[in-house]
Structure formats: structure tokens, C-alpha cells
Amino acid sequence: MYADTVFTGGIIRTGGTDVPVHDVLAVTDGRISALGPEASAACGPRTTVIDLAGGALLPAFGDGHVHPVLGGLGLRGVPVRECVSVEEIADAVRRWADLHPEAEWITGDGFDPWLAPDGLFDARWLDAVVSDRPVLLRTSDHHTAWVNSEALRRAGYSADAPDPAGGQVVRRDGSDVPLGTLREFGALNPVLALVPTPSAEDHVDALRDAAARFAASGVTWVQDALVLPDHAEVWVTAATTGPGLPVRADLCFLLEPEGWRERVGRFPADRERVESAAPGLITARSVKFFADGVIEAGTAALLEPYTDCPDSHGMATWTPAELAEAVTAVDALGFRPHIHAIGDGAVRAALDAIEQADRTNGPRDRRPVIAHAELIDPADLPRFKTLGVIAGLQPLWAQCDPLMTELILPRIGTERGRRQYQIASLLTRGARVAFGSDWPVTAHEPLRGIATAVTRQTPEGTPEGGWLPEERIDTATALAAYSAGCAHQAFEEKDWGALRPGMRADLVHLAADPVTTAPADLAHLPVMGTWLAGRRTYGAGLSTPSRAAKG
């Protein structure tokens, strides 16, 4: 039987850190059918031959923690992501407002939180360019927002109003007057609730745009790590209508402390609806928890107080006891907990909750995820392996950039600063690691994260030798964390994440062999093509992601 497609003319890396390489691969009916000489023999008169042109074919990438719908929608507001100063952001807001006089709200997404001293943004800076309409801008980490006075007024944030539960309205020095900086979702949500909701069509278009960007980066599977009530239907519509989607996905239903017992009872029906509507394309096996906030905002939950604020341990979203109860409840329903935990206090609470679920519901292969795990206490490092917890890490964060130097290190000090993003330490202790981007928080291209994991340097190559160089990993290990690691997270390691006969042909063609590419050049290594189950989703003859959405 002849193959549908044969790849030749380059190196075939089958995956993992110590595996054979080949020079030919054959695909039949969406599955890898042969490697090496057998693949060459499968080339028939109707076989499509793909010339790798000296490049490399590898298992396609996954993304173990990303926000496709939210990211796609975020491309449609004020383009603030590339702004490098407060003044530049204000100018962008002014221009966008002038071009969109019909917009009731002016929103933007993704600016750097260190652009104002101590991450404190003043409403008056926005009032100077737009005062008659509300302005809402979210930082790249999505845990902080900068708003103008009109947005504060509409949300009811005044000098007399107390901080909402689970959030902080930053006040001006020496007064109770809101400054214009809101921290954490308890403070953001009352404002977000006032913003007009994009149409269902807008949501689907945003997801399609995001998915095209993933395909162009070699990604074929994503973990949507924050599925709001209306987002599951967006995924189903996008996957089952029109051209479909170039990626598969698992959805994480969001569970928040308020009313969680009533909400969790609806999850099984939600799962059944999604998986029956888009079988083989979308699963809905995960539940998302926020255990805390982020260090740069002072809201990550720490075991010891903040260095710059000795009376604060941060802001835990759940009490440890209730987090454990909720995690145990969703685990009992067969869902995988996916817990955002940044601070060492939140990581410990997440591990304790998973341990309680294991004791209560009995041992099984549950593969819970602790996402980010930025700061881990030494005593908790071995617990990841013991409890079978996947460390869902964002390797692009493991660099000493301005976010680190201006906000994070001053808040936690030198000793804790040396315990951040312990990728090598987790792997050495036998923990499972799956890489993700957290886009739109940071760039979605896996090769950029892989470059950082290998070098622990900024794009400018600093510091020499890497930041916390003992936590560097080699290229093959980083590639595996973005492929086999994500397949393990998806419970699909027998189906993708490696290139072996019988496995689904989820493939990425890179212009050169990443294992032999200089680490500093990995971030710029071109993606030449992507295939999902043997179907080309990016490359020659296919459109690239639309840029029009940014307007």
C-alpha cells in the first residue's frame, strides 16, 4: 500500500531526548505508516512528496496553558502590547479613540506592568487623552488593570467604597481616592462586566485568528486554560463549521470560590455536550482554579511575607481547606484539576489539595496540573513526582527581564529570587513537565520559549551564561516538554507527541535541525509547515494569520 505523503530530504527527529533519527517518513490516512527505508518504499505514483530542503521534521508542538479566545479578542482593541512607555500607551489610546468615536468603551490588552514605578498607573494619565468614555487597559499578566476616572465612576469605585472581595483598588498616597490601578479579578470583574460583550461571531472569528497563529508556530493541540461559560460553545462552533480549526483542544472550565458547589454539579453535562458535539476535536476534561495572583502585583500567595511589604503574604484566592474540598469534588467527577499557583504558598496549597483528593478518592492516573509554579519551596519540589503532578511551566518567563528586575525581585528578595522557574530541578527529581505559553500573557511561539529554557537569557543575550544557569535544560529536553510533555498532559501520549508508526501525523517542519542550531538562534528558526493528522494547516499555499484584527 502506497503512502499518501512522504517526507524526505532532511532529518526526522522522532521525539524525546535519546531516540533514533531517520531521513524519510510516510503518512497514510492521517497516521505515520513507516520510517526510514520502509517509508521510501511506500512512495507511489500518487504519493505527495514533501522535500524538507535540509530542514527537520519533528512531532508538532502542544501548548499546555494558553487562552485562545481571550487572546484573539484582545487583538481587537487598542494596540498597546508593543508600547514601551506610559506616554506611548496614552498616545495609542488617543489615536484609537479618535478612529472609533462610536465605541462606548475603549479597551486594550497586554502592556508591560513595569512601565510605571512600582506598577502603579494613574487614572489621570488616561483622563488627559480620554475623559468622556471609560478606558480599561489590562497588563500582560491580566491580573492588573489601568482605568481612567470614568471607568472608576461607572464601576462604583469611590473613596467611600471598600475593596471588593478577592481584589484591590489601589488608593492614592495619603487618601482613600482610587488611583486607577486595579489588582486581581475581584477588582477587575465589576469593570469587565460593564464592557459590551462581543458578538458570538466576533468570538468565533477571534478563536479562528488565534488558532491560525498557533498553526503558524507548529502547534496542533492546546489546553484552553480559562473557559468562561460562553466559550465552550465558541470552540464547538469554530471546530464544526466553515473551515474548522487547525488545532485540537482540551477545555478547562473555570471554578471560582463563590457558588462553586452549585457550579461543579453542571460540569459533567457541559463536558458531555462539548465532547459529543466535536468528537475527536475537543475534549473538556479539566477544571481551572486560581490559587493566587502574581508576584509583580504583590498578590501571589507566599509562605513568608513580601520583602517590600512585611505585613503581606499576598492574596490567596481560596482558603486552603476550601480549595482542597473543591479539588476533591472535581476529581471525584473525573476532571483533572488545573491550578494556577505562582507563589510558594499557593503551590503548597495546591499540592495539599491534590494530596487530599488522592486520599479521599483513591489512587489513579489523574495527572493534575499546577500551572506556572514560579516559586516552589524546596520541601515541595519532590512532591510533584510523588503526587503525579504535571508542572505546567512557561519557559519564556525564565529570564531576568525588566519585569524581574523592576517588580519581582524587589518584592521577594534575593534568596527567594534564586528559586524561580526551577525547570531543571523539577526534571531532575522526576517530575513531569509540560510547557505552555500563557498567551496572550506572553508570546505563543514555542521556539521562543525553548530558546529561553536552553539559555535562560533575554533576547538580547543577557546575562552572559544565563540567569540561574543551573536551571538550564538542553534543546532536546525542551522540545520534548513542548510535545511529549503536552501529549502526556492530554492523556494522549500513545497518539501524538512522538513520530512512530501508528501515531497521528501531527508534524512540524523547521528550516533547520533545532538540536544542532545554536541556542541563541532557536527563537528565530522558521516554521516551514505544520500538519494535523496528516492535513497541512500551515505552509506553502496556505494563508498566514490575519493581522487585520489588531486595528
Explain briefly what this protein structure is:
The chain has 551 residues and is of the alpha/beta class. It is 31% helix and 21% strand. The strands form three sheets. Strands 1, 2, 3, 4, 5, 19, 20 and 21 form an eight-stranded mixed β-sheet that branches. Strands 6-12-13-14-15-16-17-18 form an eight-stranded parallel β-sheet.
Measured between the Cα atoms of the first and last residue, the distance is 50 Å
Uncertain residue segments: 543-551
Helix content: 25-40%
Which outline best applies?
globular
This entry's quaternary arrangement is single chain
The number of helical segments is 18
Q: Tell me the total number of β-strands.
A: 21
Counting helices, strands and paired strands, the structural category is alpha/beta
Radius of gyration over C-alpha positions, nearest whole angstrom: 23 Å
Determine the strand fraction and express it as a percent band: 15-25%
| Average pLDDT metric | 94
Profile the largest sheet.
8 strands, mixed
